[in-house]
Amino acid sequence: MTASRWRIAVPCLLGLLLVAGCKEVQDIREEMGWSKQREAPPPPPVVTLETHWLPSDSVVDGQSQAQWVVRWWQWAGRFGDEAPYADQDGSRCAMHQDGAVWFLAGTTGRGDAVRNCTIPAGRHVFVPLITWAIDGGDAGGGMSCEEKQAASARLADHVNTGLVLIDGRPVGQLQRMRVAAGDCFARSPDLPASSSDGYWLMLKPLPPGPHQLAITAAYKEGPRSMMQNFRYELDVQGDPDVSDGDEMVLDDAAETAATP
Question: What residues are paired with 118 via a beta bridge?
Answer without folding.
Answer: 235
